Amino acid sequence: MLDILLGDTFDLAFDGGDFVTGESTRQHQQLLLLVEKGELKEFPSRGVGIASWLLDDATGNLNGQIKREYEADGMKVLKIAGSGQTFNVEAIYES
Hints:
6 strands, two-stranded antiparallel ribbon, globular, alpha+beta, 28% strand
C-alpha cells in the first residue's frame, strides 16, 4: 500500500519540504501492533496494544487479536508465528 511515510520515531518524514510517500504496509502493521484501543480518534476500537499484552501474565490469544486487527484493516494474514516477545507476522493488503 502506498501512503505518507513516518520516520523511525513515528514523526512525519520529509524530503525537501515535501512529505515522503512509499510502500507503507510494514508501517501500518507496526502502528496497529503498538496503539492501544481508544488511541486512534477516528477508529477507537482499532489497535492491538502489544505492550499491554506483553506485560500481562496471561497473554490469552495474542495471535488471534493480531489476526483480527490486521484483517479489519484490509489485510490478508498469511502467517503468524511466535509467542512471548518474538513474533513473525506475514500479511498483505488485498487489492
